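So, does this match?
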Amino acid sequence: MSKITEVVTRLAVPIVEEVGVELWDVEFVRAGGESYLRIFIDSDDGISIDQCEAVSRALDPLLDEVDIINGPYILEVSSAGIERSLNKPEHFMKYEGSLIEVRLFSAIEGSKRYVGILASFNGDSIDLEVDGKTINIPLKNISRSNLKYNWQ
């Protein structure tokens, strides 16, 4: 976790709890010449625009006060989404038994991309069931992972 995301996480947790949602993730990225600070929130009841706005309005002055980001940036607060990223141990634990997509830094059994059922989270790896076979994937080899929704 970068220093920016670490500080923003610390600032955001009490705010999202007050709004009645949970902090899913914080991301700071530069793309197309712009900087984006993205706050992803979640709730078992879904996320409303009003909740996103409440988090944004409460967090914005605190970010100005700590002034941890050099230069201009765009603050985005949104739902974690139906195909949300899985980045933290608690994300993997929450979605055991769910269909996920995993992209790898280096190939395992000839592939750098798998879609399967998250069978288990083992602390430093996951077991993924793909076509009746279980593949153990170390977390350090995962470049990106997310829930996969069956759109059919």
In short: Residues 3-79 form a domain with the GMP Synthetase; Chain A, domain 3 fold (CATH 3.30.300.70). Residues 49-66 form the longest helix (18 residues).
